[in-house]
Amino acid sequence: MPTPSLPVEENAIATQEHAQDVIVFDDVAISFEDNMVLDGISFRLPRGETKALFGVAGSGKSTILKMALGLLKPDRGHIYTLGEDVTQMPEDQLFDLRRKVGIVFQESALFDSLTVHDNVAFRLMEEGQVPIDEIDERVREVLRFVELEHTVAMFPSELSGGMRRRVAIARAIITQPETLLYDSPTGGLDPVTSTTIVELIVKQRDVYKTSSLMVTHRLQDAFTMATHVFDPKTNHMRHVEAGGRVEIPMTFLILREGKVIFDGDLQQLVQTRDEYIREFIS
User: Residue 56 and residue 121: Cα distance in Å, rounded?
Assistant: First the structure.
């Protein structure tokens, strides 16, 4: 295990200070060979908030998700996930921490040889701590939530791209995680299907109020999330009326050349005078 860069007492104090934030990056830097990907970035994801990450290809968005899970270690800085400094944790403790985090991978990453039921149930079955009948009940519950209960016995090859993405979300939320990581959940989907996925993410956010960190290439997806709420009466999202606001805070973080150049809400984003950001969101 690497030598701590701070005394144990200071690490303990820092961890306690970040206990109310589900994810904190503190002066984090990482490079691959001679390529500096992140260069001293800092941000926080408060409990109950959703934050969307933006930046050009190769700007380190997916790297941030991997680092939040402890899959990659930074060259400098500290990362706190659910109050724990993952830069200092041994692998066995990281494994326990990851049980509290749900992740929706790019392209869904379902197991082709498993049915929808077994894909969604995979983590619960692997851990072996939940009775089979309870697993079956929870699988059907989350599939019902994403409106795919009828696919329980189907294989991924029998599903459309949008359906596979919805199954991936069901798999991520079955463990009732404290936070969710989305890696381009609408990537490669047509606009209509993308809207369906965004609506499901809004539903998950407003029903379960799970903190989320979302990498996306589609600015309109995050704009929709910032201006819509889920309406349980219609089972669809609706636009927030003028003067209203979504209950769950939504913020935007933009990366450029390894740095955070913006971290704020929608109003601050549309009012920015930064020329690069104005061009980015136009």
Answer: 35
